[in-house]
Design a protein that fits this description.
There is one protein chain. The protein has three helices and 29 strands. The chain is globular and about 70 Å long.
Length: 635
């Protein structure tokens, strides 16, 4: 019997690799997704936005009985000229009773809803399903789960009820010889007339370890999912079919085959892996009610077909003093759009819609290569060197689309770190990049540009006794040069230069009291730029400052901090590139408080808030409170 099952699954796996693939999906009725106990609550108030979220996981279990629940709720309130409230919830509850090791019975309840009081196409949806299931375990690592239940689905005022039914089939690391087979199959129908949703999923993973140093993994997946949703019907269709909302069906099919090989010799610092993947995707969009009264303005259905090839390879060399990593990736994608045929359309309209969809057709080739090396020159000296290069080629077959372009990006970095003594460490960092964008056709060539960036930074960390400090200074420059700015005055080359100084220091007065300071200073300048003479004319200048000195009192697991938060942003324009003229001045100062409390390893409460007095350049004064509260509880 076991031999027959092994042969059956090998044949079934080979057949599936010849037909299809898609993304993997987790099992709906698994206890593993409920096997945790924790509560996470967050409340944030920033400016005019209030956000509250909670995440809950809890379960009770005995030898034969299991109950689990998990919930994710999020609410956002935004106050501006109008008040906006957006809520969403995802709730699952699972109950299971084990009649025996081979047979289990259970129920799964799912309640989801989304509401948004803004005028959106879909601003209110809800889903409530109750499903009973049976788990049958004929062999170890094999599970068959048929299920059935009732679904209540509400979308933009349209309520549909019906049955949901199907089956799941799962194999977890079924071993035969040198191979481990894992598989997941899912069949699900949701008949909520007049809508119909379904899921089809077949997934296989075959892993083999021929030797301790050689691993091979082959995957094949297929998935198809249909979703029907309502949208507001156009006036013509509403009158002709006596409907308020129309129905659109979206059917997405995915196929993929993947092979990954990893070679890591036991006593060698060298290892490498190679991975290849072929994938196909098709999306069909169908509208239920189509009016031919005014065909030219009727929404038409479309199909998108995409094929993709991905190849990735990497190699690593690791010793005590040298760490080298090499990565190469290549991807090629082809995307095609076409309208679905509709009886009753004349040839002129069909040709117009074909032309519109063909303009969206595109192909792309993407490749990147990177190298990272970390070398220990000595016990106290380290150097890191990295380079990255990427090329993108984007083509559009349509003669009406001029978006064809090539893009090159190169990035390089050198970082040197030195430990001068046990108390003082320093670093010096230099990095730069070049990004070149070239549009092939003259219609878009005015966008051709080169972006060059250069950044130099240095800093250090000092620690001794009760005092520790970390500081860094950074200067950076960004030069964007358009190739044809003389022909198009709307595109002008520009430069952006910036200086940043950051500081973070801590001083302990005692075991319970310490002083902490963090802050930064940013000076930025933007202006017109000429690459030929490497000269610029400054147009805009920004000065930004931030500081938040705090005193902490710490006792066991309680930490309380109070301090002051200061922020300022000044903006200047230049008169003839010389004289700075202030155009805005934003300053904020006020008290802040921070509390952190832990009870063992179960409860963690954090509060951070500040009250700010705001003053602007027009001498208007405002006051605003901001806070963040987080409560994590592991039950």
């Amino acid at each position: 019997m076991k031999k027959f099952v092994q042969i059956y699954f090998i044949l079934l796996f080979i057949n599936s690799t010849l037909s299809a693939q898609a993304g993997k999906d987790s099992l709906s009725f698994s206890k593993l997704s409920f096997s945790d106990k924790q509560i996470i609550n967050n409340f944030d108030k920033q400016l005019n936005t209030f956000n509250y979220s909670t995440f809950l996981k809890y379960f009770l279990g005995s030898d034969k009985l299991f109950f689990g629940i998990k919930e994710n709720f999020n609410s956002t309130v935004t106050k501006s000229s109008t008040k906006n409230i957006k809520d969403e919830q995802f709730l699952w509850a699972l109950g299971q009773y084990d009649l025996s090791e081979k047979l289990k019975l259970g129920i799964l309840i799912n309640n989801n809803f989304y509401t948004d009081d803004r005028e959106l196409a879909i601003n209110k949806t809800s889903l409530f399903t109750t499903t009973v299931f049976t788990k049958f375990i004929p062999l170890n690592n094999m599970e068959i789960t048929p299920f059935g239940g009732f679904s209540q689905n509400n979308q933009i005022g349209e309520a549909n009820n019906g049955f949901i039914y199907g089956s799941e089939f799962n194999i977890d690391k079924f071993n035969f010889g040198d191979f481990d087979l894992s598989s997941l199959m899912k069949f699900q129908n949701e008949d909520i007339s007049p809508r119909k949703n379904f899921i089809r999923l077949i997934s296989f993973d075959l892993n083999s370890i021929f030797e301790e140093s050689f691993h091979n993994s082959i995957s094949a997946d297929y998935s198809q999912q249909r979703k029907d949703f309502y949208f507001t019907a156009d006036p013509v269709s509403a009158v002709q079919f006596n409907i308020t909302n129309n129905i659109q069906s979206r059917i997405e099919s995915n196929y993929s085959i993947q092979d990954k090989i990893k070679f890591a010799p036991a006593n060698s610092p060298l290892s490498f892996d190679i991975q290849g993947r072929i994938a196909w995707r098709r999306i069909d969009r169908n509208t239920r009610y189509i009016s031919f009264t005014n065909v030219a303005n009727t929404n038409y259905d479309t199909r998108i077909e995409e094929s993709r090839i991905d190849f990735t390879s990497s190699a690593d060399y690791l010793t005590d003093d040298i760490n080298l990593s090499f990565r190469f990736t290549f991807s090629e994608r082809d995307e095609k759009h076409q309208p679905m045929s509709i009886d009753g359309l004349n040839n002129i309209i069909i040709d117009e819609r074909n032309d519109i969809e063909q303009q969206k057709n595109n192909t792309s080739q993407f490749a990147n290569i990177s190298l990272l090396s970390k070398i220990n020159l000595s016990r106290s000296d380290k150097i890191t060197f990295s380079i990255f290069h990427r090329k993108l080629k984007y083509d559009t077959p349509s003669n009406l689309n001029y978006d064809d372009r090539d893009e090159l990006l190169s990035i390089g970095r050198i970082l040197f770190e030195k430990e001068l003594n046990p108390f003082f460490r320093i670093f010096v960092n230099l990095e730069g990049s070049l990004n070149k964008l070239v549009y092939i056709f003259a219609q878009r060539s005015s966008n051709n540009n080169n972006k060059r960036t250069l950044k130099f930074s240095s800093g250090g960390a000092f620690t001794t006794g009760n005092f520790s400090s970390s500081n860094s200074a950074e200067v950076s420059a960004n030069y964007t040069v358009f190739d044809y700015e003389e022909l198009n005055p709307n595109f002008r080359s520009y430069s952006f230069r910036q200086f940043v100084f950051r500081d973070s220091s801590n001083y302990k007065f005692s075991h319970k009291i310490r002083l902490f300071f963090s802050g930064y200073l940013k000076l930025s300048e933007q202006g017109d730029f000429k690459w030929s003479s490497f000269s610029s004319k400054p147009l805009r200048y920004l000065s930004e400052q931030y500081a938040d000195p705090k005193i902490y009192y710490e006792f066991q697991s309680l930490s309380v901090g109070i301090g002051v938060r200061y922020f300022s942003l000044e903006t200047f324009n230049f008169n003839k590139g010389i004289e700075k003229i202030k155009i805005s001045d934003y300053r904020s100062i006020g008290p802040l408080a921070e509390i952190s409390y832990m009870v063992g390893e179960k409860i963690n409460l954090k509060f951070y808030g500040w009250y700010e007095f705001i003053k602007s350049e027009d001498n208007t004064n405002r006051e605003m409170a901001n806070m963040s509260i987080k409560l994590n509880y592991k039950i």
